[in-house]
Amino acid sequence: MARDLKYTRNIGIAAHIDAGKTTTTERILFYTGKSHKIGEVHDGAATMDWMAQEQERGITITSAATTCEWNFPTEQGKVLPETLPYHFNIIDTPGHVDFTVEVNRSLRVLDGLVFLFSAVDGVEPQSETNWRLADQYRVPRMGFVNKMDRQGSNFLNVCQQVRDMLKSNAVAITLPIGEENDFKGVVDLVKNQAIIWHDETQGATFDIVPIPADMVDEVKEYRSILIEEIATYDENLLEKYMEDENSITEDEINTALRAATIDMAIIPMIAGSSFKNKGVQFMLDAVCKYLPSPMDKEGIEGIHPDDADLLEEDQKKILRRPDPKEPFAALAFKIATDPYVGRLAFFRAYSGRLDAGSYILNTRSGNKERISRIYQMHANKQNPIEYIEAGDIGAAVGFKDIKTGDTMCDEKHPIILESMKFPDPVIGIAIEPKTKADVDKMGMALAKLAEEDPTFTVRTDEASGQTIISGMGELHLDILVDRMKREFKVEVNQGEPQVEYKEAFTKAAQHRETYKKQSGGRGKFGDIVFRLEPADLVDGKAPMGLQFVNEVKGGNVPKEYIPAVEKGFREAMKAGPLAGYAVDSLKVTLLDGSFHPVDSDALSFELAAKMGYKEVGRAAGAVILEPIMKIEVITPEENMGDIVGDLNRRRGQVNDMGDRNGAKTIKADVPLSEMFGYVTTLRTLSSGRATSTMEFSHYAETPSNISEAVIKKAKGNA
After folding, report:
1. Using N-to-C axis directions, what is the helix angle for 250-262 and 280-290, rounded to 10°?
2. 712 annotated ligand-binding residue
3. 289 is in an annotated binding site
4. Which residues contact 182 (CB under 8 A, 6 or more apart)?
5. Which CATH code, of 3.40.50.720, 2.30.42.10, 2.40.30.10, 3.30.450.370, is assigned to 301-417?
6. Which positions of the chain have pLDDT values less than 50?
7. What is the pLDDT of residues 550-570, one digit of tens each?
8. 94 carries a ligand binding annotation
9. Which of 122, 532, 608, 668 might form a disulfide with 161, Cβ 3.0–4.6 angstroms?
């Protein structure tokens, strides 16, 4: 039976590492009847953390997807005549910076987000990264301030941090009753009533009680702030508010708060403690009330495959509405290898209906694929379903060729949906199989892992012949090597971590390159004059890839050879002229040239471009770029001087120093090449009391002494 999409919620749970995401998801599964026992992270029994490494390390590495149902509205947990089952697709995302890719791809397909904050630690570095990603994808969200039972918890302080640090309009819709160990419930500011949860039912039931006498004034103040924020957003309520704020009804508050949340004008904030089973049920009700359904978006835009090579302004937009009767369109957002069913593609269906056993078109490859089975996911278990409709999230098997970001659609109505952009890897290690038996297995394991993870790449070093695997950080690569051992039974030896440098050009240079081979019979001839320079900035940034401009007049280079010239430069960019590192961004203008009526062909012009690129490198001011990491250190004040001194020695630039929860924070930009083993040094400098988080920020030009060393090493003279 088709579900009413109005009662579907595709939501993610995101936060900084250790803010309690997986514990919160476990509570949701318990309350929605998906699991009969609450799995605890510290026992290594959490349902959503299904990989062996996740259970050992107590962190979430991959986005586990699950489906459950929640009855809403209810009266103290009891079903009412108007109660409806809301269908939730929930994605639990990792909080560690090395796995930001998982958050990135989840946000692309979600309609709403529950953002967890620790009531003790507040807004932490990865909270900021994930918040920025959610802004980028314009995902409406609400805040759940977890760990209210912990010493040092402060709900209103966290709300203020969200306003100050994340520049978002956080508005409390609950206030905590009791602090730390005495935290026992919340005041619901919309209904203006107090809720106390029962410990004996693990929070499944609760009592509505009068607002505690010592909170009456505070409740009045914060309810007034909530109503003022809503009235400021909704002009229809502003007049009522001016006359008498108490005349605004509960239904009017909910309707306006829902609209403001979807519009990202307000972030509703809720207090709770997942571990103590308090506040999660209230949060689930709030998801139903305030976060969007697939119907709240008019539809998703795409383009026809025939328009893919046109400039953006010339592409005709196609709209697919969230309706099962529309042609089918879906986006594959994650590829996983399952030991029982093989290659599994997670996808979000945006329009139409897909039946198991039917065919779809993959608009990237242009191939038809038969979907043999469709599943609804619960962590790493699959529940087979007959079909999937618009607005839902599922997984399918049967694909011969599928990648993250591919569009799957009805072959009679082709469409390309906007794909996903992922950062390039910044750190690499050389690996080699331990035994001869591991050689073939290693190739297969690496191919499967690279297929699953767009930020993991594998290449062969031309000089040494070694296999280099690259990723977003040391933990990322550790876990991938560990997965090779566990899942693919491949043992490898690892080299030292190495930085993934890049190359760039800093000025314009003009050059003529003639490629010719004439030794009797038909020869080769290609002659080009071109200008090579840094790419034109778009919105203040250099765009990725090659900007190619053809300014040849009068057919001096025949039209049919122009694409070969462009191809030659595009291929050549994979290796820079100094040390063979890739060039990300470049502009080439083809100015003139000449051809031979017999000897010229496309390959001659392609080779002329490749040779010319190598020749002109130094004249165009080629430089080495290195990855710069953004680091945040939280430390007791007495260790601050030593830590700042150490960062300066590492060529770091300190950008900000501040206070957080009685400790000091240091924010700095530091080259990745200087940061290997930093955690151990920090532990020594602070006697184990300081903590740090690090994420990729940008690429910057290296000082000349570093450049020389990098070039020397790349050429094998180190």
Report:
1. 80
2. no
3. no
4. none
5. 2.40.30.10
6. 1, 44-45, 50, 58-63, 718
7. 999 888 999 999 999 999 999
8. yes
9. 122
